[in-house]
Amino acid sequence: MSTEPICQACGMQYAVARDDCPVCEDERQYVPQSGQQWTNLASLRESGTYTPRIEAQGPGIIGVGSNPGFAIGERALLVQARSGNFLWDCAAYLDDALVQQVRDLGGITGIAISHPHYYTTMVEWAHAFDVPIYLHEGDQEWIGRPDPAVKLWSGTTLDVAEDLRLINLGVHFTGGTVLHWPDGEEGQGALLSGDIVQVIPDRTHVGFMYSYPNLVPERPHIVRRAAELLAGYRFEAIYGAWWDAIVRTDGFEVVQRSAQRYLAHVLDEG
């Protein structure tokens, strides 16, 4: 049974017990008013509170998480690519039933995570499926539980398969990364963005923030660079971090006009 400590606020699993959670103490997250509290996977499983949740989110993209959500509450996405199933981002809760359901879908060949808020129990997932975890080296300092399964990469892009590319945009975190699947949406392309490119209630736009809970906007030069990088890719849909947080059409145009709107507001250019 896994007893490594997990922060109840953000879901980060640490290798050893500690009093503080660096992720929560950072200005991009927060320590709850009730104080820092801890749990572990063994306790979460034994509580009977959580059950696996697996639901289709789009063509060849399956949401993987729990009901209810734990900590921040994001869900992972299983991408059913030609090169094999690949897990994007990570949900904190994991039990034997969830592992079996993912195996029944064909298992996974690897894991990549957009930024530290979703590292959570990534090592548990990697061990359960005997696969690597791809993290950008820009966020190495935030790894709570180091493990040989973690593979750090550098630069702007990394092809984790012949049909899947990681792109480091640097939004939200230095290593903030998105996943481009050109075969997604039946060949029209899909962008899996976590909250590096945030899908918002108005699906005609997306958001760019340095700190979401504390409402700190991202720096303009970072947003401009992100838009320039994504201008080289085509995608119809954008899959955010939450259940059904999806831009279904015109994803490329949504990103570009959102960046233009953002820059016009923060730089007072419009």
UniProtKB/TrEMBL annotation:
Transmembrane intervals: none
Occurrences of domain Metallo-beta-lactamase (ranges): 73-242
SUPFAM superfamilies named in the record: Metallo-hydrolase/oxidoreductase
Domain of life: Bacteria
PANTHER family linked: METALLO-BETA-LACTAMASE FAMILY PROTEIN (AFU_ORTHOLOGUE AFUA_5G12770)
Name this polypeptide is given: MBL fold metallo-hydrolase
